[in-house]
Amino acid sequence: MRSKHWRKLASFQTLWGLLVLLSAAARPVAAQVPSPESVLGFKVGEDRKLAEWSQVVDYYQKVAAAAPDRVKFAELGKSTLGKPFVALTISSPENLRQLDRYREIQQRLADPRGLSEADAEKLIAEGKAVVMITCTIHSTEVASTQTSLEFVYKLLTEDTARHRAILDNVIFLLVPSLNPDGQDMVVKWYRKYVGTPFEGSAPVELYHHYVGHDNNRDWYMFTQVESQLTVGKLQNLWHPHVVYDVHQMGSYSARIFTPPFLDPVDPNVDPLIVSETSMLGTAMAAALATAGKKGVVVNAIYDFWTPARHYQAYHGGLRILTESASARLASPIRVRFEDLDAHSLGYSARHASWNFPDPWRGGEWRLRDIVDYQLIAFEACLHNVAAKREMFLRNFYHIGRKAAERSAPPYAFVLPPQQKDLPAAVKLLNTLRFGLVEVQRAKQPFTADGIAYPRGSYVILLAQPYGSYAKTLLERQKYPDLREYPGGPPRRPYDVTAQTLPLLMGVHALEVQNPFVAELEKLDRIELPPGKVEPARRQYLLRADSNNAYLAVNRLLKAGAQVARLKVGVKDGAREFPPGTFVIRSGNVRELAGLGVDFSATDLALADAKLLRAPRVGLYKSYVPSMDEGWTRWLLEQYEFPYTSIYDKDIREGNLAARFDVIVIPDQSVAAIVEGHPKLRPPEAQGIGRETRRDAAREGLFFQGPVPDEFTGGIGAAGVANLRAFVMQGGTLVTLNSASNLPIEKLGAGARNILRDVPNKDSYGPGSILRIVVDPSHPLGYGMDTQAAAWFEHSPAFAPAFENAGAPGATTVARYPQGNPLMSGWLLGDSLIQGRSALMDAPLGRGRVVMFGFRPQYRGQTYGTFKMLFNALHYFGD
Ligand SMILES: [Zn+2]
């Protein structure tokens, strides 16, 4: 073989041919990379044209095949609905050949413990900057996936000094869509209605199957597979210096936003990250100005408070956000200057100011405009990092080192091993682990701050690379009291104000303020100890302390086992079983021990118990998509509660009592539920008034637009009457948060919302954790402690109302205590809700309405109050 091979090479002709081939390989192979147009059949950004996900994947596979020396294509896993979830790695051929080495450098610098200053400098000199760009997490913000196609093509085929600098200095990770399911849903919807009066409207369902727009509020809880893939398979491997997250906002303010962000800044974010974020964002704004682009705003609308969107900023990197003005999906719009928002948060879109130096004058606005601005922003982001490669690496290393050497209170958080809901505590610890927080366990008892902790206590030391991430998730937030002007109404936070996981999850955790000594071992994964199953007797008792107890019961009911629930507590020797304890009379409990719940055998005669059956649950799904509906659906699936989604027409048609025991209406306004989308009535064919547009712009939300008739009208008066009939006939209606105004205003439930007409300046809780006092002997309070924490978000608070003829007064199951109930976040007007009801049981006819004045299943995080929602699903037929 060898000699034959050699003979071939020895021939002059072949040698010459090989040299030609070699030199061709060294030059850019521009001709080989296909243009987006050649694959898609249209130009990127063309009016009314959007690439669907399979076209995007197809294009990137072709690019990777054409330029394997510079592009790696990878499928990281599948999306929620089974589409390929993909990422590209793009860099120079030299860099791509040594990817493992560069990842290793990143990992070493990310955790610099034990690394000498001299060795760190060597790694900084050798390493590459890592930038990740993530597109269209919000699927109606359609442009960035399209932009990415053209950007990659240009980067690979246009041999400019800037492109060479990017490829040589940066490892560019591209996620063409953080939500492929939504990308296809929106494109399909758009294509269906293009050329009709409904062109450019948003779909009438959540564009992420479970969580809709909240999919970028999941970056510390990681409930959804897309967050798990992005953080688990890219972020945590590569520790990017910069993650650029590309979004769009409404149409009636600036053309694009870049950082600096607005106050408040979470004090747990390293100041260096804040400065670098402002620097890079401003450099991007300057690049847009250089290109003559108008309407660029910085330091407006978007704040820097929560880790839910800013995971990177607690992991040594920057999160750059841009928000572009939207067209109507891919359809152009015309915007008049005088319609631009003069009262946007932090600026006026009609007046020049330091942070908005060059107002856009109005006119046509189309997808191509968004693409043009984003192309500049993409390149500016990457090129600025390339130019400052060394600075980004060195600062990244300094941030990690400073975090690991932290020496200030608090020093640690401790979770004692005795927890009411141990599976929730283990979930909390593993959630921190997924975010790269080190968790240790005490090998011996120890004392800290004068408190004795047993062996097996879990300890999170804050002196570690991601200690500030752990701190922001474990401590109580003190949100600053920000006003629109001195003495004025509160300034709306961009999102919520609290994220204290121990409170949300009902887990006991203590902060340690002084240095302490303990013998600790590091845990890679926290195992849930299996539950105890005693030798069988007449029946098993299962306390309702943990959410997993309900999961166990659902599995037993599904298998046909007989399960009841104690109405009054019992004692069996020294053991106590409170009201709500499950009584398992048949079924295989041994296979459920893995859920970490204990099955206690007893021969007691237990007559005072309610026999359970799997509830027939109807979950209302509005065509005005409610993220809370999606979260509820997700939660019910996690805990294996059977349910049926019901739509406006199901409720309008009635006969609900024959189909359901319980109907759940997730958090939504009464108007959205009852009226739904307005019908399209020419000549107001453009549907929604200017004020609504402005509100949408201010809130950064996408304009919905008119939708086909079949999706309009809500449940209507007929639906209201049918819901009332359902309850009167013995059904249980469960309303969550704002939806609780429905039974109060429309069904005659015996309660009133005392906050209904109170202005923001007197009462404001935009996503905060409040203390509640629960009655654990009430069927809705089973399994709870007397003290609990509830998620209050623009919530109602109730008082009984006796004036409703025919309705008995409602019973309070949970109430706010006397004294300020605020535990974490921000609350104005606490005195108004002191002593008021947070959860009411309102009998009506033969049935009842269960009114939650908080979100018991908030974003899949409130493990501490899931049980009250689960209890409500079992609360019928009493
Ligand atoms: Zn967005």
Can you put this structure into words, describing what you see?
- By secondary structure, the chain is of the alpha+beta class.
- The chain has 27 helices and 38 strands.
- Strands 27, 28, 29, 30, 32, 33, 35, 36, 37 and 38 form a 10-stranded mixed sheet that branches. Strands 1-2-4-3-5-10-6-8 form an 8-stranded mixed sheet, sandwiched between helices.
- Strand 27, helix 19 and strand 28 form a beta-alpha-beta unit.
- Helix 4 runs parallel beside helix 8.
- The structure holds zinc ion.
- Zinc ion binds next to loops.
Can you summarize this structure?
It contains 27 helices and 38 strands. It has 878 residues and is of the alpha+beta class.
Features:
binds zinc ion; eight-stranded mixed β-sheet; 38 strands; 878 residues; disordered N terminus; single chain; 19% strand; 33% helix; alpha+beta
In terms of DSSP E residues, the strand content is 15-25%
Helical residue percent band:
25-40%
Overall mean pLDDT: 93
Say how many strands there are.
Answer: 38
Distance between the termini: 86 Å
Which spans of ≥5 residues are poorly predicted at pLDDT below 50?
Answer: 1-31, 683-702
Shape: globular
Radius of gyration in whole Å, from Cα?
29 Å
Secondary-structure-derived class: alpha+beta
The molecules bound to the chains, other than polymers, are:
zinc ion
- Biggest sheet statistics: 10 strands, mixed
Count of individual helical segments:
27
